[in-house]
Design brief:
This protein is an all-beta fold. Helix content is 0%, strand content 57%. The N and C termini lie far apart (39 Å).
């Protein structure tokens, strides 16, 4: 399954935009689902968005209309485009990929949205 490398986090003003990337170190075989989770301090990790092997997407109600998840199979990469960011979006964002043989987590990338 290899490793996942996340990038794109940072500090942004409310209303701004960021794009997160999750790149796999090798080709993904038996792919079932790719997703983004987030965890704020003292809170439970929760699912933000996901995309299936067929391209079907799902979003948490808190980000619908603002976030877009996509993938590029040729580059073994998943993206999360984030717009109209709010202070409550502040969290560590984690990439997750689930295949027929198991799942792999990224180490996380920090997103901080200031007022």
């Amino acid at each position: 399954q290899g490793q996942l490398v996340e990038s794109g986090g940072g500090l942004v003003q409310a209303g701004g935009s960021l794009r997160l990337s999750c790149a796999a170190s090798e080709n993904i075989r038996g792919l079932r689902l790719m997703g983004w989770y987030r965890q704020a301090p003292e809170k439970q990790r929760s699912l933000v968005a996901s995309i299936s092997s067929t391209g079907s997407t799902m979003y948490d109600d808190s980000v619908k209309g603002r976030f877009t998840v996509s993938r590029d199979s040729a580059k073994n990469t998943m993206y999360l485009e984030m717009s109209s960011l709010k202070p409550e979006d502040t969290a560590t964002y984690y990439c997750f990929i689930f295949t027929d043989t198991g799942g792999v987590w990224g180490q996380g990338t920090q997103v901080t949205v200031s007022s």
